[in-house]
Amino acid sequence: MKVLHVLAQLPAQTGSGVYFHNLLNGLKTKGVDNGVIYATQPPFKEILQNDYCYPVHFESNELPFSIVGMSDSMPYQSSIYSQLSDQQTKQWQQAFIKRLIKAKKEFQPDIILTHHLWYLSSLVLDIFPKIPVIGISHGTDIRQARRHPHLKNRYLGNMNRFALIFSLTKDDRDNLINEFNIDANKIKVIGNGFNSSIFNLENSQKLKHSSKKIMYAGKITRSKGVFELLLAFEQVKKKSPQSKLFLIGNGDSTELKELKTIVSSHGIEDIHFLSALPQFELAKWMKQSDIFVLPSYYEGLATVCLEAMACGLRAVVSDLAPLKNYLNNEINQSQWIEYVPLPRIIDQDKAHREDIPEFIANLSQSIILQMDRLQSHQAIDPHIYDLIMEYSWERLIDKQFHYINFLFEEKKDKA
Asked: Does this model's pTM top 0.70?
């Protein structure tokens, strides 16, 4: 079976990029031959594979602008769909169409997996009308469609042409039906997963240092709640002076400068900024830390929280319905993860200004609570850890391959 994977962003640099990368590798273990189309730009040089690899180069003569992100704030230099000129949009379309046509001729896929129900997936459906296409929604496509309905109407055709769609959550499934007029029977709630060969308890160093290491990993941007995390950590330091906070990720230079100004003006010590890390390096940091904090105002599924818990970290997470509804209720009630009530949200990912002080207070209290549990040496229940490991990519790939193989066999029967 030959499967073409299509992504308009960098692989392995965002949640959807990690999903793309893990799905590619997981299907290889099932004996699938993969072709890949993805975006790249300097300084990134990763080549996913030697054969049937069709990268689209941004910041080049062909595309003299940055990769266009599904979020308006990306962890690397990016453009914004709603701000593209007509000429840029046409250049973008022509570049991806060129690769799609080349892959169609050379690779001749049996099945296509395309990420995000947005511009590129619509092009895939246009160019491969006789091949089963599976769309993978990461939630950001729903947000783009709601914010920019004129773009959806202009650049998206009939999205019910998909053979199947994988969604992260039940909420996303309902939103896809309403936003894109998709047949409910075509949408399969698959969820997301983590790589258990990377994120696990092996070589964990958490008990070998006296200071308490708190970490955040993700985009460094306001919608992720990192500004509030800094101020919450200021309160945590008063209770636990030996604590250290590590913010791991890339972000807009202006916001990074603003964050560092807050640290300096408030005199908050032991806050460290690190650039985004490959998964192997991120896992090493997790295994040397104690508490993972994700104070985000919006997430598709927050897989990074699963990765952290798989490395044995206690978690403090804003009360994100997609994650909370996805996890087994035993995990939610285990005290291994502590949910912080969200402030009122404006425009899908912005906190109501009046609610921010209470959110900061609740965030700091939850971190301190998890620290107290650490101090009492409460070990993770092996049963809870087994439940966490059920969300690994191995389990997810089995589920996805079942649907992919079904479409492949159905296609052969019709041939």
From this structure: yes
